[in-house]
């Protein structure tokens, strides 16, 4: 065995007490991720994904053994982190859970840089993770990401169209039940229309997406957003407070989904969130003005 190989050497170097604490933290992190990947591999039914997860788990174990050469002791995985990221990956998808976990590891890169100043050979760990593991993660085949475009289509249209419609109806109708009913009818009709459009659009493409599944993802995302946005009108007597809560819910949906997308697809979060939020609020403001003009011109009293 080559003792100069930073990942496979057998000698046990002497390190300072301060550096040893940093190394123990890094070792525990690697061992924790090793167990997370193994547990996810056991739970997944997709043979290709299972193989990828097992390969990454082996990498993490190898890195943990590298740190052990310097610490001289075994460490136990962080049980809280293990449960948390396993749950996130199972509920929100492998790619999102893994990339969120890796982002947390990147936030500790300052410690890694401090380590490499005293321990230059440790740079091989960082390079290995960036190149090999990121490549493996990119190979994960996941339905959630295949149809993410269909979900985006349903969410975006529902947020922009319905926030605008509800804002306009609030001033024009002045009745919570009527506004909720009109919003629900509008939303259901629009969701069916969007689902059909997505079905026809996907059917004409030569990709791997199933047209029926794509249309279902779009329609469900749309109608789910519609139900969420009209809830304040069914539970809050004050019309304008209901509108404010609806707009806040829209912003929350935009925030959560934009964050999910930015992590899973490695996209810029702030710009996409600001763009979508401004579009929804802008359309709502214009529609509110249109509702005021309609009520004024036609002298509607409900």
Our count of domains comes out at: 2
| Backbone structural class | mainly alpha
SSE series: HHHHHHHHHHHH
Described by strand count, sense and barrel closure, the largest sheet is: none
What's the number of extended β-strand segments?
Answer: 0
Envelope shape = elongated
Distance between the termini: 85 Å
Low-confidence stretches: 1-10
Query: What's the mean pLDDT score?
Result: 80
Helix content: over 70%
Compute the CA-based radius of gyration: 26 Å
Supply the number of helical segments: 12
What share of residues are in beta strands?
under 5%
Characteristic terms for this protein:
mainly alpha; single chain; 302 residues; 2 domains; 81% helix
How does this structure look, described?
The chain is mainly α. It contains twelve helices and no strands. The protein has two domains: 17-141; 144-298, no CATH class. Helix 8 runs parallel beside helix 10 (211-235). The longest helix is centred in the C-terminal third of the chain and has 30 residues, at 269-298. It is elongated. The protein starts with 16 loop residues before the first helix and ends with a helix. 33% of the residues are buried. The model is unreliable at 1-10 (pLDDT under 50).
């Amino acid at each position: 065995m080559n003792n100069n190989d930073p990942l496979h050497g057998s000698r046990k170097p002497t390190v300072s007490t301060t550096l040893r604490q940093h190394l123990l933290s890094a070792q525990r992190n690697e061992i924790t991720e090793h167990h997370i990947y193994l547990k996810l591999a056991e739970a997944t039914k997709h043979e290709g994904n299972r193989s990828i997860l097992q390969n990454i788990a082996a990498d993490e174990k190898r890195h943990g053994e590298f740190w052990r050469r310097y610490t001289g002791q075994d460490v136990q995985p962080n049980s809280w982190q293990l449960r948390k990221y396993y749950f996130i990956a199972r509920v929100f998808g492998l790619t999102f859970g893994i990339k969120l976990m890796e982002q947390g590891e990147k936030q500790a890169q300052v410690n890694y840089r401090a380590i490499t100043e005293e321990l230059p050979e440790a740079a091989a760990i960082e390079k290995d993770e960036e190149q090999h593991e990121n490549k493996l993660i990119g190979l994960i085949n996941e339905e959630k990401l295949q149809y993410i475009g269909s979900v985006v289509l349903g969410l975006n249209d529902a947020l922009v169209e319905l926030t605008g419609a509800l804002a306009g109806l609030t001033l024009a109708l002045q009745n919570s039940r009527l506004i909720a009913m009109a919003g629900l009818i509008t939303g259901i009709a629009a969701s069916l229309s969007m689902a059909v459009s997505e079905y026809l659009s996907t059917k004409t493409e030569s990709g791997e997406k199933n047209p029926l599944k794509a249309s279902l993802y779009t329609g469900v995302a749309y109608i789910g957003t519609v139900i969420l946005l009209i809830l304040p009108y069914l539970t809050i007597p004050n019309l304008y407070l209901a509108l404010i809560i609806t707009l806040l819910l829209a912003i929350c949906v935009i925030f959560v989904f934009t964050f999910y997308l930015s992590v899973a697809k490695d996209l810029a979060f702030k710009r996409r969130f600001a763009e979508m939020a401004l579009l929804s609020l802008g359309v709502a403001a214009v529609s509110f003005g249109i509702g005021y003009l309609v009520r004024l011109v036609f002298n509607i009293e409900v």
